[in-house]
């Protein structure tokens, strides 16, 4: 059973109500519940994830976001009003003709790629096997949209221009996830990305960016968002992963594509009657979180270096921060221990010290090898490198206790 952060909240809330876990699934659910409870009570953390809050806290967050806008404006119905305002804002930010709001990124990308398949006459989509549609969407490409995925590389990295150019069969669309989350939030260099896009163009393929976390990728590329988006024919962006919105996504591209996408949005059940809560928080995220993302990315590199130094000083024989210098404000940490031992040590540290160094789940990367994802947000800016090293030292004491049991 996967122990990933994006999927564990609802499962945890449905978990144990005091009974001793008897199956592996129940054990993992009980652990999730402990971890989430410990994180909610933590006084210090690298990232306060709003979606883990109580209903009262989420309503207060919505009210705070709403105060930034004219609340006497008529509410939206089926995508009008403030939803249109959000769409125009995102289209301008990404330098595209038009945008369409979607309730989920999964729907946005299914629709985009279905539209491109009709326009190119080819339902084959080239993408990475670690891309979101292949890992987290239950084969929706083939089962819902009639698309056929092919993999340009199986390496845990972004594809190269040569791999795209030399792929042995035609494809209508090349989809690039920027960053590639399940490979470690990896991004290519600007030159590599430009070359990959050019290779796709040489094959008369269109290019779609899965930009769920594109917002925080600009620092790595050293380019503004509209220049990055200009490489692609269409781009999807998320409003909750980085911008702290209640949910939602947008698809941007040529107006003709977006008009067609809105028709398919209706067919897919995405014409929600009123969406103003999500739209309000998305706009607030663009105002408040988007300008801060470069600061988070820079500090993620401070945190990553301090983690390496802290584990070395604590006598841990081997550690990997991946990538060594984070490409975004999120990265992976690998440790040569059983995932159960590391997960228990992380939870104990949060429970006993109210300091959450590792808030996310730990999973197996191989025999005796565990990894987790580290998110660096506003809360992390209060941590110095020495603070990180101190927390690592405390964590290692608990880790050695758990590993010795």
UniProtKB/TrEMBL annotation:
Keywords: Lyase, Pyridoxal phosphate. Gene3D superfamilies: Aspartate Aminotransferase, domain 1, Type I PLP-dependent aspartate aminotransferase-like (Major domain). Its cofactor is pyridoxal 5'-phosphate. The keyword Lyase applies. Residues 1-13 have a biased composition (Acidic residues). Residues 83-309 form the Aromatic amino acid beta-eliminating lyase/threonine aldolase domain. GO terms for molecular function: lyase activity. Residues 1-26 are annotated as: Disordered. PANTHER family: L-THREONINE ALDOLASE, L-THREONINE ALDOLASE-RELATED. Belongs to the threonine aldolase family. This is Beta-eliminating lyase-related protein. The lineage of its organism: Bacteria, Bacillati, Actinomycetota, Actinomycetes, Kitasatosporales.
